[in-house]
Design brief:
Number of domains: 4
Helix content: 25-40%
Strand order of the largest sheet: 10-17-16-13-15-14
Bound molecules: N-carbamoyl-L-aspartate
Mean pLDDT: 93
Largest sheet: 6 strands, antiparallel
Distance between the termini: 52 Å
């Protein structure tokens, strides 16, 4: 039977469908029960049991739980377990991620577990190392597991968190009411929840964080799109005054190492608003459980240690679940489990290739359209019309400057104009006298930088060709594109030579395929480059 999981990667949580996650949770449950019952035979069924099966840990950021639970999980499988000594590796000689991981791929390693400050690194490597494996006729390309990338995601933590919530919920997938408390801005474990909690049917999320540490808008938007009910509070104190307090609370640590100086100055006050205090105990609903991905700070824990011995303590079991989750995950990618998984719901792959974003419009036959070149009508040339309809004249002018730069209309005569429609709305028009044709690639650039406009090609005072544009679903393969997130693997400042690539989102913005950062169509262009 074909194993659906073999050789796959887990870069972001939605790399696993909901059904796949539910299957994984059933396996974790089975394994935990087998360990508890000392049922060695069942435990053996989970094992890869191959001393040549290479599992490699590459941690470029500190870690205790994730690294050690993965190492212990890998040892469970009786596999070949290695760890790259990153501080004495050729990373320090300026070697790229691709070269480093290609090398390790060549030494017959099958699963890489990667933690890095650089966001989107696993998605990049998953592509690179497949090509390397093909070039070198290696039998199998490796799997990549994201063990936390910068502020982006932490999908394996998300899996073990979901599993722990389920354990405390009688494995009820219908409802989840959870409070996310702490540093929601920098914490990747809570970012993974924006898409991760879709495993539950009805989700209510109470976000408890001071403004400086609030959940970024892009994740809020995803939560809303996924139908979560969202309530926002600025401190635990304020939250406890509400009349619908969750029984499951997920704390995250103030991530000082990722904070700017301005916020750091106020760390004490910010920490106080997300730290649980004794006097709050009486306000908690019955059967409340607290969770925390850990670590907590020994001097300033937001879950104080006196709570360890109370029934609120869900974080210790959560940490233990980390190892079982990771044993099962490695088992799936290594092929020891997963053959009996049945996907019943069709996973809909969006087909963007067929979507058209440049429409050729039939110009009016008789119309001798008079567009002006300053004071003279344009006899031959191009006119881009309907730019930024409805925006302010100064915004329109700025947008026209960008369009002119991106489609290389700066070095010729012509002009930009702001005009007003009959309904009073302003719009921009770019005139360029002189013959100029457009390739498909240039039309794509035009569509991406000026969607909703019309392009008129004028010959002998007649519009001979006319195009209308909408926002293309994918933008890539242009060397002046760049993700604006400096931590992203594709950001030019990281020097990894990764080509920027964006996907259009439902709110007509562009999301970086590596780090997920949301951009307006104006922000994706690295105008310094051209
Ligand atoms: C978290 C992480 O590294 O993102 N820890 C973990 O993996 N268990 C949370 C944190 O560092 O605060």
């Amino acid at each position: 039977m074909k194993n659906n999981f073999l050789g796959r990667s887990l870069c972001v949580i939605e790399d696993f469908s909901i059904e796949e996650r539910i299957y994984l949770f059933s396996k974790i449950r089975e394994l935990k029960a087998a360990v508890k019952a000392e049922d060695l035979e069942t435990q053996q069924e989970f094992r890869i049991e191959d001393p040549n099966f290479g599992i490699y840990e590459v941690f470029l950021e500190d870690s205790t739980r994730t690294k050690e639970s993965f190492r212990n999980a890998a040892n469970f499988h009786h596999a070949k377990v290695s760890e790259l000594a990153t501080s004495s590796s050729s990373f320090n000689k300026g070697e790229s991620y691709a070269d480093t991981f290609n090398t390790l791929t060549g030494y017959s390693n099958k699963i890489f577990i990667v933690r890095s400050k650089v966001e989107g690194v696993c998605a990049h490597l998953a592509k690179e190392c497949v090509e390397y494996a093909n070039r070198n006729e290696l039998t199998k390309a490796p799997s990549f597991i994201n063990a936390g990338d910068g502020r982006h995601e932490h999908p394996t933590q998300e899996l073990l968190d979901e599993y722990t919530f389920l354990e405390d919920n009688d494995f009820n997938y219908d409802n989840l009411h959870i409070a996310l408390v702490g540093d929601l801005f920098h914490g990747r474990t809570v970012h993974s929840k924006a898409k991760g909690l879709t495993v539950f049917k009805n989700v209510t999320v109470d976000l408890v964080a001071p403004e400086e540490l609030a959940m970024p808008d892009s994740y809020l938007l995803v939560m809303k799109e996924n139908g979560y009910n969202i309530n926002i509070y600025s401190s635990i104190e304020e939250y406890l005054q509400s009349n619908n307090i969750a029984t499951q609370w997920y704390f995250t640590r103030p991530q000082l190492e990722r904070m700017g100086e301005q916020i750091l100055k106020r760390q004490e006050e910010l920490r106080a608003s997300i730290t649980f205090r004794k006097e709050f105990m009486s306000k908690l609903p019955e059967n409340t459980k607290f969770y925390h991905p850990l670590p907590r700070h020994k001097m300033f824990p937001t879950i104080p240690t006196f709570l360890d011995k109370t029934s609120l303590n869900g974080w210790e079991r959560q940490s233990i679940n980390g190892m079982y989750t990771r044993i099962c995950l490695l088992g799936l990618f290594g092929g020891s489990i997963g053959e009996d998984f049945i996907q019943t719901k069709k996973v809909v792959e969006e087909n963007f290739h067929d979507e058209e974003y440049i429409f050729s419009v039939e110009p009016k036959k008789s119309a001798k359209k008079v567009y002006s070149e300053g004071v003279n009508p344009i006899a031959n040339g191009i006119v881009i019309d309907h730019i930024s309809v409805g925006e302010t004249p100064s915004d329109i002018r700025e947008h026209m400057r960008l369009i002119s730069k991106i489609i290389e209309l700066d070095d010729c005569k012509g002009g930009e104009w702001v005009s007003q429609n009959n309904d009073g709305m302003f719009k921009g028009i770019i005139f360029r006298p002189g013959i100029r044709s457009f390739s498909r690639k240039e039309l794509k650039r035009l569509a991406a930088v000026a969607s909703g406009c019309t392009l008129n090609i004028i010959k002998d005072e007649t519009v001979v060709e006319k195009y209308r544009t909408t926002l293309p679903p994918r933008i890539y393969n242009f060397d002046d594109l760049a993700c604006t997130n400096e931590a992203c693997i594709s950001n030019p400042s990281n020097g990894e030579g990764v080509e920027a690539m964006f996907h259009r989102t439902s709110d007509k913005r562009y999301e970086c395929v590596y780090c997920g950062k949301s951009h307006s169509f104006k922000e994706i262009w690295n105008t310094a480059k051209k």
